[in-house]
Amino acid sequence: MNLKNPSSTPEIVCFGSFIAMNLLVLDEWPQRNFGCVFKEYRDSIGQDAAMIALMLQDWNIQTAMIGSAVGTDFRGKWLVDQFNDRGVLGEVRVDPNLSTMLAILLSDSSGDRTYFWQPDPQVLATLDTADLSLLPSSKLLYVDWYDEDHILRPMDEAVKLGIPVYLNLEHLHENPDILARYAGRATICQAVTDAAQRGEESPLTVAKRLLEVGVEIAVITLAGEGCFVMRGTEMVRVQTPNIKAVDSFGAGATFSAAFIYGYLQGWSLEKMARFATATASIKCSRVGLETPNLSEAQKLAEQLHSE
């Protein structure tokens, strides 16, 4: 099922799984063996590559999505509609023998989130047969560690073509084998150091580790403390604004999308870091995965403290 006229040229290709997500927003978690009333329910996208493709498309960046197959169930049809309606390039393969993957996410009033999902190896294996023909005409490839070794084929193709690769590695910089295998193929690598995702190492230590394996730009997100970005000897630290977080689901993907937006515009390292931090902060102040307004994010970015 084609998403749009295949003759169009994408600026970025996002590669990853198609996952539908059910989002529930709670005031607080119930006691064990009890229930609670949820405040809001949203149907959403459950994987970063797909989220980023939609956000960038909303910001008038022509995007292509190369993803896993979906089933003929209502979740698969809903996903196809999301991408078709927004004009994302690519083909969503529909297989009646598969069930579209589903994730369930619970977000509480503290801004924390807990998710549940059941990856289907048969569905994930369809990534290995996905058509990469949109890649050569693009300016950037985005991949995520969630899809594990399925990302190696497009990464290797991008490297061969001289196309920069943006990798979301999160906490896996702690694993030397994965660091070399994934980050060693990346141009830009986004990682985390916050305790919630197993870490709390120095951002500078993590950034240097990424640069040592060949990454050109190391992007370290620090949850409520902003970000640290490093390229060569250039370093930028940006603090978050004073915004109350109500739903952190999609914050990392929003940060990535905003950083990519700035990268494609040729912005400075500081401007990219400011804009990404501002955009992710705006997202956290709202429930669900609504694409932040560019003008609002740019205005907030100008107000942020950096060093």
From TrEMBL:
Q: Where is the Carbohydrate kinase PfkB domain?
A: 11-292
A Pfam family it matches: PfkB
Is this entry keyworded Kinase? yes
Under the heading InterPro entries, the entry gives: PfkB_dom (IPR011611), Ribokinase-like (IPR029056)
GO MF, one example: kinase activity
> Which UniProt keywords are given for this protein, alphabetically ordered?
Kinase, Transferase
Record's protein name: PfkB domain protein
